[in-house]
């Protein structure tokens, strides 16, 4: 199959996304105002608490089994690699462009966390349904594709709230420290109050709030006897690494970690893996099949609603902000040039060493996870932390605008590589 044929196959699902996103953008304008700020907030909450958990639960419980999970284990590692590689590249970008302290977490989030949710759920089944699809029978391909996309969505949501959120939270806390320090120079009358406030914020930002050692215990750990300067330097570096890990763990918000989507993923895994429970809920003869059918029906509304919200949220980015072109170009280069190339190398290497089988659709899904635009949850996190919201809107606008072309091109290249 030629490049042009595969390009058309890859173009169709992206066009669907563009049309729905454009509709959301239109509904969010002031003239129509069906998806204004209040409406978006309400719809976001419905998606967060109802539609998205229902979609994850129904897809995982129906498609994940012990046999399938044994062959899909590499996806968990692959998604983790996308986060780690994105973080490393973002750190290089931060050093080159000298990004302000309070925006560093946002840049790391945009480079590391891809949209592993609704985009794969749209793209992969749509590619399977195309007449010239290189992945064989459309019904088998769609079933397998939904399994891969559902697992990608569930694992991605867990990583975002356990990895990306703590990093962005640390960056936001540093902005608060800077504000407090600037305020301390306004006069001696407020110096004590400011000093006390800075102390509280600094302690909260640098030390875990629960279940971690106190500062005295940290000192006990750092003061390790050594016989030479080289050994002392090595111990200091090791202790700094431990403190950094404890700091990130201390900033994990376990209430947000166990979000509705995460809980739905846990129950979906349980039902899918435990055969007796699965037979009760899923199947034509299942006694409680009405429950599963109802949840599945509700979950079907998640994809169009999430895509409409993406379009409406992009409207804020048209108003502009103080984000420099170098930052935007850097994020685009990381997400659409460097990471997809690394994704091809990683997946083909994993296949060469027997970590991934020869299933072309599975390899395509793994590669696609490196070429996705930033996760919309990054914008949600910036709103929760009340920092970098306008900058995030501009970054999302440009990255999703470029994604229309980049996703089509990389999807075509991925199909050529795995075919």
UniProtKB/TrEMBL annotation:
Keywords recorded for this protein, A-Z: Auxin signaling pathway, Endoplasmic reticulum, Membrane, Transmembrane, Transmembrane helix, Transport
Keyword match Transmembrane helix: yes
Tell me which domain of life the UniProt entry assigns to the organism this sequence originates from. Answer: Eukaryota
Give the transmembrane ranges: 6-30, 42-60, 72-94, 106-127, 147-165, 257-278, 290-315, 327-347, 397-418
Q: How does it sit in the membrane?
A: Multi-pass membrane protein
Which GO biological process entries does UniProt record here? auxin-activated signaling pathway; endoplasmic reticulum to cytosol auxin transport
Signal sequence: where?
none
Asked whether the keyword Membrane is assigned, the reply is yes
Any Pfam family matching the protein: Mem_trans
* Gene Ontology annotations for the cellular component aspect, listed alphabetically: endoplasmic reticulum membrane
Record family assignment: Belongs to the auxin efflux carrier (TC 2.A.69.2) family.
Q: What does this protein do?
A: Involved in cellular auxin homeostasis by regulating auxin metabolism. Regulates intracellular auxin accumulation at the endoplasmic reticulum and thus auxin availability for nuclear auxin signaling.
Q: Which PANTHER family match?
A: PROTEIN PIN-LIKES 3-LIKE ISOFORM X1, PTHR31651
Protein's UniProt name: Auxin efflux carrier component
Q: Which organism is it from?
A: Carpinus fangiana
């Amino acid at each position: 199959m030629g490049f042009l044929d595969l390009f058309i196959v890859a173009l169709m699902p992206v066009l669907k996304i563009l049309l729905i996103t454009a509709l959301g953008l239109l509904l969010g304008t002031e003239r129509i105002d069906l998806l204004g700020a209040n409406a978006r907030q309400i719809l976001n909450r419905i998606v967060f608490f109802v539609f998205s958990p229902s979609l994850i639960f129904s897809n995982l419980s129906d498609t994940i089994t012990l046999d399938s999970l044994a062959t899909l284990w590499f996806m968990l590692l692959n998604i983790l690699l996308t986060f780690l590689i994105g973080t490393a590249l973002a750190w290089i970008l931060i050093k080159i462009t000298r990004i302000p302290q309070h925006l560093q977490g946002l840049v790391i989030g945009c480079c590391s966390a891809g949209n592993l949710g609704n985009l794969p759920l749209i793209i992969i089944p749509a590619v399977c349904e195309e007449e010239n699809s290189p992945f064989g029978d459309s019904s088998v391909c769609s079933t397998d594709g939904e399994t891969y996309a559902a697992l990608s969505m569930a694992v991605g949501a867990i990583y975002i709230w356990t990895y990306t959120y703590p990093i962005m939270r640390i960056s936001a806390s540093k902005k608060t420290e800077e504000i407090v320090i600037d305020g301390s120079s306004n006069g001696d009358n407020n110096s004590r109050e400011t000093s006390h406030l800075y102390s509280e914020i600094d302690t909260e930002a640098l030390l875990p709030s629960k279940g971690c050692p106190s500062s005295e215990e940290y000192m006990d750990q750092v003061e390790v006897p050594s016989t030479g300067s080289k050994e002392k330097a090595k111990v200091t570096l090791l202790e700094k690494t431990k403190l950094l890990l404890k700091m990130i763990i201390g900033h994990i918000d376990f209430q947000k970690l166990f979000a509705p989507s995460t809980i739905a993923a846990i129950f979906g895994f349980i039902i899918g893996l435990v055969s007796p429970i699965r037979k009760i809920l899923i199947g034509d003869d299942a006694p409680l099949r009405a429950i599963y059918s109802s949840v599945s029906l509700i979950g079907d509304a998640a994809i169009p609603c999430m895509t409409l919200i993406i379009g409406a949220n992009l409207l804020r980015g048209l108003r502009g902000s103080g984000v420099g072109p170098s930052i935007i170009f850097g994020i685009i280069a990381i997400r659409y040039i460097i990471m997809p190339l690394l994704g091809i190398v990683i997946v083909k290497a994993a296949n060469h060493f027997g970590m991934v089988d020869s299933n072309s659709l599975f390899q395509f899904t793994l590669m696609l996870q490196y070429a996705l635009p930033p996760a919309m949850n990054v914008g949600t996190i910036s709103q929760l932390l009340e920092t970098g919201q306008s900058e995030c809107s501009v970054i999302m606008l440009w990255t999703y605008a470029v994604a229309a072309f980049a996703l089509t091109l990389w999807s075509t290249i991925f199909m050529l590589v795995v075919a």
